[in-house]
Write a structure and sequence with these properties.
The protein has four helices and four strands. By secondary structure, it is an alpha+beta fold. It has a single domain, classed as Hut operon regulatory protein HutP (Hut operon positive regulatory protein HutP, 3-Layer(aba) Sandwich), CATH 3.40.1510. The chain has a four-stranded antiparallel beta sheet, with helices on both faces. β3 and β4 form a beta hairpin. The longest helix is centred in the middle third of the chain and has 18 residues. It is globular and about 45 Å long. The chain starts with 8 loop residues before the first helix and ends with a strand. The mean pLDDT is about 90. Pfam families: HutP. It comes from Lentibacillus populi. Antiterminator that binds to cis-acting regulatory sequences on the mRNA in the presence of histidine, thereby suppressing transcription termination and activating the hut operon for histidine utilization. Keywords: Activator, Histidine metabolism, RNA-binding, Transcription, Transcription regulation.
Length: about 150
């Protein structure tokens, strides 16, 4: 069965990230999807990955002891970071810094529930030289099956 076009997981993650109102989380709760938001700023790519991973574990979006869940999250994070960094996942080694907000959404975006759950990570913020005012906006999205 195809995707449920009313509830695309990547779109929901981006809307959650960029939307300021509380209505969207209510829609996600009705779907039974798990989600959270957070912030991270660093010149170290490992800190970006760690911040998103820690939030997902602390909010119960992924189970710490299940490798497949952490692995799926990791790939979604790396894909999102790749979007922010334009394909070169290096930050500090290239004298770049990021200031990002993130959202994580877990759910089943398919009409057939047997398709299982997916996870989406959305990143939005700034990237640039480590000098205030010398950055620009960037956005990234990563989606992976669990």
């Amino acid at each position: 069965m195809p995707l449920d076009r009313k509830h695309l997981i990547g779109k929901e993650a981006m809307l959650l990230l960029l939307h300021n109102e509380n209505q969207l989380p209510e829609e996600l709760r009705k779907l039974g999807w798990k989600f959270c938001k957070g912030k991270v700023g660093s010149m170290d790519g490992q800190k970006v990955v760690a911040a998103v991973e820690t939030a997902a574990k602390n909010q119960g979006i992924v189970k710490t002891g299940l490798y497949r869940e952490t692995h799926a999250l990791y790939h979604a994070i790396i894909e999102a970071v790749s979007g922010v960094t334009r394909g070169s996942n290096q930050i500090g080694t290239l004298l770049r810094t990021v200031g990002l907000q993130f959202s994580i959404v877990r759910g089943n975006p398919y009409q057939n529930k047997e398709e299982g759950e997916w996870i989406a990570v959305a990143l939005y913020g700034t990237i640039g030289a480590p000098v205030k005012g010398l950055e620009h906006e960037a956005i990234g999205l990563g989606i992976n099956h669990i």
